[in-house]
Amino acid sequence: MIKIFEMISRNFISALLLGTLVSAFVMALAPKKAGAFRTKWAALAMSCAIFVASLYLYFNFNTCSAAMQFCEKRAWISGLKAYYSVGVDGLSLFLVLLSTFLTPIVVLTTNVRTLKNASYYFSLFFFLEFTMIGALVARDALLFYLFWELMLVPMYLIIGVWGGPDRIRATVKFLLYTIFGSVFMLWGLFWMVSYHNVSAGSLTFDIAELAAMRIDPAVQKILFCLFSIAFMVKIPVFPFHTWLPHAHVEAPTGGSVMLAAVLLKMGAYGFLRFSIPMFPAAALEFSGAMMALGAFGIVYGAMMSYAQDDLKKLIAYSSVSHMGTVVAGIFALNAAGVTGAIVQMVNHGVSTGALFLLVGVIYERRHTRLLDDFGGLASVMPVYSTVFAIVTFSSIGLPGLNGFVGEFLILLGAFGASPLIGAVAATGVVLGAVYMLRVYEKMFLGKVTHRENEKLNDLGYTERLALTALMIAIFAVGVYPGFVTSRVERSVKAVVAPFEKGGALCSATK
Question: What distance in Å separates the CA atoms of residue 212 and residue 207, rounded to the nearest whole number?
C-alpha cells in the first residue's frame, strides 16, 4: 500500500488525468437502468474525489520556486522528439484547481429530472475536465495543442445536444471561430520547431527549450501574432468576441459555467505560457496595442452588458469586459499587473460561474431570462436574493470580496505601464457597478411585478450547498488574497523579469 501511494505521488498529475478520463468512461458506460439520480450521485462522488485529490498540488506546492513542479516525462512520439511531459507552476496551479472545483458544483446543480441521457451528459463534463487539465499541465507544445483542440469536442456536444433552440448555429460558430484561431497557432508552432531545428540542430517540442531559443525580432513579431490570434479568439478579445454571447445563451447552465470559468482563461494562460516568454521583444513592442485592446474591451463589454435584457447575454458580455481587464493586466508586463491578471482569472471563474448558476436557478422556475419578467424577488426568494447580492458585489469589485483584489492589482500595474490606459481601464469598475446594480434593482427591489413570481420557491438544499461553496471561495480570496498570490509570485517574477528595470529587454531598449 505504501509503495502504491509513493508511486501515485511521483506520478500525481498522470493519476489526476487518469482519474478524470476513467470517470468519463464510467459515466459513458453506465447502464440506463441505474437511473438518472443514481448516475448523478455517482458522478458527484467521483468529481468530489478528483477535487479533493487535486488539493495535493496546492498543499505540496513549493512557493519558493518558479520552476515546474510535480514533473513527469516519458517518451511519446520518438520520431518527432515529442514527449508526454507534464508539470505545474504558479501560472497553471489555480486554473487546474478551478477546473476540479467547479466540476462537482456543475454536477450537483444539474436537474436530472428534465435531463435526457444524464450519464452521457456527465461523461462529457469529465472529458472536458480531462482536456482542460491536460492543456494546463502540458510542458510539450504538441501535447498542449492536442489537449487544446480536444477541448472543443465535449463543449461542442454539450451545447449542441443539450443547448437552446438555436444551439446548432451557436455550436458551429463556436467551432469555426476556435478552429480558425487554432490554425494560426499550428502554423506558428511548426515555424518555431523548424526554427529550433535549423538554429540548434535538434528537433524539440519542449516549451521551456523553445522559450529559451533566441529568435530574430522580426520573426518574433510574426510568431507572436500567429500564437496570439488563437489566444485572442479563445479569451475572447474584441473583435474576436462575437461567438461568445451566442454560445452562452444557447448553452445549458453547466456548459455556461465551465465555458466562462475555465475555457476563456485558456487564452490568457496561452499568453503567459507562450506569447510572452517565447517572444519577449515582440510582446514588449505590442504591449501598448494589447493593453489598448483590453481597455477597449472593458468599456465595450460593459456598455453592451448595460444594453441587454437577457440575463445570460448580459453576463456573457460582462465576461468580455472582465477578460479585457485580464488582458490589460497581462500586457502591463509588470509584477502587479500579471499577478492581478492571474488572481482575476480565478475570481472571474468563481463569480461568473456563480452568476450563471443563479440565472439557471431562476430560469428553471420561470422559464424566462428577460429582466422585465422579474421584480420584487427579494420578498419572495430572500436567500436567493442575498446570494445574488453577494455575487454582484464580488463581480463589481467590492472590498472584502475576491473581485477587489484582482482589479486593484491590475489597475496598479496598468497605471504603472500607461496612465492613460489605466484610467480607461478604471472606468470598467464604475461601468460594472452601473449594469450589475441595474440588474439587481430590476430583479429584486420594489414590489412583485408579475403574479408568476409571487409563489416562486427559494433555493433548494443542493443549490444552497453548491452556492455556499462558491461563497466560501469569494470571501476566502477577498479576505486573504495570499491564498493565491503566495503561490503565483515566483512564476510571475520569472515572466516579467526581462521587462523589469535592469532586465535584459529593458537594458537593450535603452
Answer: 9
